């Protein structure tokens, strides 16, 4: 697994059997790879709910977003259908993109600036929000609604959720903010 942004551009020579080309164009198929986060999905899936992780597969790589405690990117790339820690459920065709492999990687590096690992939130900013944004940018269409339905239900029932995952309108400030006499407003 590699995190974005990459320190040096690496050339990836792997290709996917699903990748298609149209007479030399950069047209590539886009897939949403959906993973189970819990065995309860075996029951919830049939009523249109579940706790899912998702990644976008394009040009033979899969891109996802995950949490960590640092203020650096939480966007990563893995081999398709092999995201560590999750159980692969299914792959959904989302259409195609005319972006080349390098254009897609450039887009991922750009998007990674707003998807830091320490900003991950189960309800408000999760891996499915990331894949939805990527899909919209590459195809103009969203991911299927059922993939992130539980987070949407959670956002409507915010008062019933444990305090640790409730959506707040304002981010909490650190316990000990650092104040300075300088009037530099570089932020």
From TrEMBL:
InterPro entries: PPPDE_dom (IPR008580), PPPDE_sf (IPR042266)
Comp. bias (Low complexity): 1-15
Ranges in coiled-coil conformation: none
Entry annotated with the keyword Protease: yes
Domain PPPDE residues, every copy: 28-165
Region Disordered, residue ranges: 1-23
Keywords per UniProt: Hydrolase, Protease
Recorded GO MF terms: deubiquitinase activity
Biological processes, Gene Ontology terms: protein deubiquitination; proteolysis
Keyword Protease: yes
Similarity comment: Belongs to the DeSI family.
Protein name (database record): PPPDE domain-containing protein
């Amino acid at each position: 697994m590699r995190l974005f942004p990459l320190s040096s551009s690496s050339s990836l020579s792997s290709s996917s059997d699903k990748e298609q080309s149209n007479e030399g164009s950069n047209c590539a198929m886009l897939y949403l790879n959906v993973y189970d986060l819990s065995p309860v999905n075996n029951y919830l899936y049939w009523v249109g709910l579940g706790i899912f992780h998702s990644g976008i597969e394009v040009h033979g790589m899969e891109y996802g977003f995950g949490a960590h405690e640092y203020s650096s990117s939480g966007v990563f790339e893995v081999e398709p259908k092999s995201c560590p820690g999750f159980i692969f459920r299914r792959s959904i065709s989302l259409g195609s993109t005319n972006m080349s492999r390098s254009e897609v990687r450039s887009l991922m590096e750009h998007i990674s600036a707003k998807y830091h690992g320490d900003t991950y939130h189960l309800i408000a900013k999760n891996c499915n929000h990331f894949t939805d944004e990527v899909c919209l940018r590459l195809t103009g269409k969203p991911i299927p609604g059922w993939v992130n339905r539980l987070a949407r239900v959670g956002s409507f029932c915010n008062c019933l959720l444990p305090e640790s995952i409730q959506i707040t309108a304002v981010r909490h400030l650190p316990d000990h903010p650092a104040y300075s006499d300088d009037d530099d407003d570089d932020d």
